[in-house]
Amino acid sequence: MLRESSEWVPVSGTLIADSSFPTRGPTLTEPTGDGVVTLTRITGEVRSQVVIVPYAYGDENGTFHLRILGWRRLQMGSGSAMWIPTTLAKLTATLGTTSGLAGAIIDADTRFADTLTLTVGSGTIRTEVVSPADDTIGHVTLDTKGVAKLELQFARDVDVTSMNALIAAI
């Protein structure tokens, strides 16, 4: 769950090593687990935007993919509900040379993406991709479109073994 402040939170408790996106469809089970982020505040208000910073364990110029699903609940009567996912965006990330720090949550062997390309979705005033491509850290600001939960899925590509991202509400 995102914090009430704008602090960074890792999307997953561990690096994810998937080579393809998991299949998702409507479900009667509320989405939870690694990669799933609840956007609802304590007050019940849903956060409308998040900032995402992808990172991975891999070589400089290694690539991976990120798919961001929005989960919305459909109430079906006396207590039961169905959760329906929609794709909000897909990105391709390329690692730069900037890394984490020895002994930190993001360690010195982990690199931040410096190049981000939006492959599904559209860049608007509320969804912006900042892709410096100069070994500084890139990020995406995403319009959450009012969904209750986000799920960030990762698929590794060339010269990347595992991935994750930081997320913060704005």
What does this structure look like?
This protein starts with 8 loop residues before the first strand and ends with a strand. The protein has one domain (about 10-170). The chain contains no helices and ten strands. It is an all-beta fold. It has strands spanning about 10, 35-40, 50-60, 65-75, 80-100, 110-120, 130, 140-145, 150-155, 160-170. It is globular, with a radius of gyration of 16 Å. The mean pLDDT is about 90. Strands 1, 2, 3, 4, 5, 6, 7, 8, 9 and 10 form a ten-stranded antiparallel beta sheet that branches.
Strand percentage lies at: over 45%
* Radius of gyration based on Cα positions: 16 Å
Query: Roughly what percent helix?
Result: under 10%
Tally of separate domains: 1
Termini separation: 14 Å
Task: Give the SSE order as H and E letters.
Answer: EEEEEEEEEE
Q: How would a crystallographer describe the biggest sheet?
A: 10 strands, antiparallel
- Structural class, from helix and strand content? mainly beta
Low-confidence stretches: none
Number of helices: 0
Counting DSSP E segments of at least 2 residues, the number of strands comes to 10
Oligomeric state of the chains present here: single chain
Mean pLDDT: 92
What global shape is seen? globular
